[in-house]
Amino acid sequence: MKFLKQHTVYLPALLAAIGVTTSAAAWAGSWSGYLVDNSCKKSLGTDTGKIKAHPSSCSLMPACRSAGYSIFADGTWLTLDKNGNELAEKALESTKTKEGFYATVDGEREGDTIKVTKVSETSAK
Questions:
Q1: Nearest Cα residue to 114 out of 66, 70, 76, 72
Q2: Looking at residues 50-77, what average pLDDT do you find?
Q3: pLDDT in tens, 30-44
Q4: pTM
Q5: What is the end-to-end Cα distance of the chain in Å, rounded?
Q6: From the CB of residue 111, how many other CB atoms can be counted at a distance below 10 Å?
Q7: For 52, which of 4, 43, 86, 100 could close a Cys bridge (C-beta 3.0–4.6 Å)?
Q8: Within 13 A of 70's CA, how many CA atoms are on the CB side?
């Protein structure tokens, strides 16, 4: 026990040196859900019925495009980074889905933001 007390002060420095932090760490993964522009996200909230009914064409309107995009996955909104916004826009431009654009987003999540590497339209589960 004495050893732990004497060396506890070194633990935070050691963890920082090897890249481990106690704050929200980034992790790679895939998230599937409904892709919506950030402008409409606010009014939709977490109402899945409204989110599923959101028109894909709305997300491509100028004001909505410029607001960027988020994905509603596992009951929470995750914001896409700049690259993700560009990829989401391309996916929305090529879809035939009229409403409830469901997608899988690949990337690295840090907090509530995803640094996106890929956006692809998928079928809702």
A1: 70
A2: 97
A3: 999 999 999 999 999
A4: 0.79
A5: 52
A6: 11
A7: 100
A8: 21
Backbone angles phi, psi at 45, to 5 degrees: 60, -130
Which residue type occupies 101? F
- Per-residue burial over 26-44, b if 16 or more Cβ lie within 10 Å, else e, is eeeeebbbbbbbbbbbeeb
37 vs 53: CA distance, rounded Å: 13
Specify the amino acid at residue 56.
S
Type of residue at 93: E
Looking at residue 96, its amino acid is: K
Confidence of residue 26 (pLDDT cuts 50, 70, 90): confident
